[in-house]
Fold this sequence. Notes:
Blueprint: H1 19-30, E1 36-40, E2 48-52, E3 58-62, H2 66-79, E4 88-90, E5 96-100, E6 120-121, E7 124-125, H3 129-141, E8 146-148, H4 166-176, E9 182-186, H5 205-221, E10 227-230, H6 247-258, E11 264-268, H7 288-293, E12 304-309, H8 324-327, E13 333-338, H9 354-363, E14 371-375, H10 391-402, H11 408-419, H12 424-444, E15 482-483, H13 500-507, H14 517-520, E16 523-524, H15 535-558, H16 566-596
Parallel strand pairs: 1-3, 5-8, 5-14, 8-9, 9-10, 10-11, 11-12, 12-13, 13-14
Antiparallel strand pairs: 2-3, 2-4, 6-7, 15-16
Helix pairs in contact: 1-2, 5-6, 10-11, 11-12, 12-15, 15-16
Bound molecules: 4-O-methyl-beta-D-glucopyranuronic acid (GCW).
4-O-methyl-beta-D-glucopyranuronic acid binds next to loops.
Amino acid sequence: MGLWLSKMKEAVPEGIRTPGELARFELSHALPGVPVTVEEDASQGDGYRIEPLTDGGLRLTGGSTGVLYGAYRAILDRFCGEELAAPVESTPKYALRMIDCWDNPDGSIERGYAGRSLFFHDGKLTPDPVRIRELGRLLASAGLNVLCINNVNVHFPAQLLLEDDLPSLAALAEMFRPFGVRLMLSVDFSQPMRSGIPTADPLDPAVRNWWKKTATRVWAAIPDLAGFLVKADSEGRPGPFTYGRNHAEGANMLAEAVAPFGGVIVWRCFVYNCRQDWRDTATDRPKAAWEHYAFLDGEFAENVILQVKHGPFDFQVREPLSPLLLGMKKTNLAMELQLAQEYTGHQIDLYTMIPMWKELYEELPADNIMSLAAVSNLGDDANYTGHPLAAVNLYTFGLLAWDPDIDPAAAVGRWVRLTYGLAPAEEQTLTELLLSSRRIYEKYTAPLGLGWMITPHDHYGPNPSGYEYDLWGTYHKANRNAVGIDRTAKGTDFLGQYPEELRKKYEDPETCPDLYLLFYHRLPYTFRMRDGRTLIQRIYDDHFEGLAETRTMAENLLALPFPEPDADVIRERMDRQLYNAREWCDIINTFFFRLSGIPDEKGRKIYD
Ligand code: GCW
């Protein structure tokens, strides 16, 4: 077993049935010679307590899944060289800690950068049990407990998972059960129509009945299925709008069908006009989610969770917190993060996310949401995440979902220590490199919160105006004098969706935090920033710095003694990152220089 479980030498054997059995197996193999007593107390759920005993042993108590989390805590602490001096107790902040895979039945993965699907091949659910047991162990040891295995864009034949392929789904659920991982399934809102019902109208009795019967059949096969995940009326997916119904009516209909079995409906809020005319300046895409959902606050059933992307656009390097996460006080909310590095370097460029996640929590009270979800960065590559260092995002996401107060340096440092047997100074270097990687990527890509200067569709590498005349509502409107969109009350008033305190923080370009400046404001290139630089100079400086810092990062990273095969992959990907950073730096600077005609004060090479 590799990744952060590199010290676990014994594979999980077939035949282990419960998390409690697995906890005992893991402890006896990973901590030989340490006497551990394990006591299960179902009332403790995912929580656990570990008490050091005078004979050098441990007493572990916890819920039926809690003992497994406690076992991994004890094991990984020991692997990190941390001896327990006093009892520790822990319960997760969020009950649902979810990974959403965007895997298609043909084995491809939408926005996947680590190979093909671990679950699907040639239209069928045919997982390799050995890899599923490895994956289960990775997820459980990171505290993750819900896995949605199929793409939210439910393409045929994924619908068959609710029909003829249900037994293979049930078999997969069974493989994950000892790891405390419950499956979730993305469903197609229009699926009743496959059974000859002429509509998918959520208020139609035949439709409601179809979902109830389906849920009864599905939960009979998989009694602990976590629920259904739904992308409706989004980017061409079917949904309630077709029938003049709103999203509470749609979600509640499904919620009623799954409620008797303890299931939840996770309903995504990624709804916007993806056929926008670029000439239309009245529509501002970041406003869309709020406009579709805020007025429905309090209307959703108890077992509906609205899953909101962390920012109002779509996983850009820098976006403000989605206002929905602050505004819907009477609704269950999950925040959706994206481990898959769609816009953030395709698991080629280094990009450690936890610093960004912690920034979100500076504005998000942890209790506003009841669950964290992340789009998976997994695939069937031998190392699971394509770039071996991208695994830090999966592991630290688990730590964050367990405890959003986690310190980013401690989380990344723990991953580094568990993954590689480096000397202390090298551990420190790698931890710092990882922690700085997001800011570096941000510097050489689209500037100061602007976003979207990326190659359309593929989303790797620069193309400053690639989306400028397209349908997706993602415009920067750079001309010879100015760049950005005014989202204050004088402009589109997106900012009006926030509580007053945040409006004040961002509304005045003189006091708006630099890194959000071009998210909220349209400004001339000659605008004086607080540090005295002009906006255009800041753009040039950031890009040159981002490239220089990538070069330094590469030198420091490649000097570390990574084991093979990681060393090879890291070297090869770093070469591609260096190329990418140079392309970004030169193309963005050239783009702005050609438009503005304003030279770099420091006389560095920009292409005319
Ligand atoms: O921005 C888009 C991605 C799509 C994805 C969508 C979503 C699954 O480019 O690939 O579709 O977000 O989150 O639904």
